[in-house]
Amino acid sequence: MQDSDDLISVLTQDHHDLQQLRTELDYLTEFDGLRRSLVVLMVAETVRHSVAEETYVYPVIRARLPQGPALVDHEVTAHRRIERIMRSLSRPDLTSSEITSLLAELDAAALRHARAEEEELFPLLADHVSEDELVVLGRQALEAKEKAAIRRSLAEPGCPMRSEHIASGGTLVDRVRAYLRADAYPL
């Protein structure tokens, strides 16, 4: 478990972990194969994080916060923008410079999204949801995160996310979403 198991801490740590992964990608410009593998991991982890927010945060925001539905719609739009960039980034025919350009675009969109959540949305959530409930939700999110185990799954030789369907590139985001919805974050 983390230092704090409340939902806000769990998701904020995810933001930091994803930013660290993105930073690591900046240093791999000379190692194309490794860089592409790390891009696949980053896409999978980003989708896992988005699904966690959609499963544990957005229903609470929609139900409890003033203007909750509008806030959720805004956040979902940000997720879709990020996923659109990741779909482009997952194409197998990209040049190194195209990857660099898309990573910069992704970084800007993800940073805006994370800052908006951490500076605006999460404080509102903390004001409208009890600490005990945030801890319960955070522990549920951590359990689901463990079940999702994207890194472990991607390392397995027969991993369905590494199959020929994924190698085509365009469906990585959708396949990770489907995998998570079936196993870790069932509706």
Automatic annotation (TrEMBL):
Pfam families: Hemerythrin. InterPro entries: Hemerythrin-like. Residues 7-125 form the Hemerythrin-like domain. It comes from the Bacteria. This is Hemerythrin domain-containing protein. It comes from Actinoallomurus spadix. The lineage of its organism: Bacteria, Bacillati, Actinomycetota, Actinomycetes, Streptosporangiales.
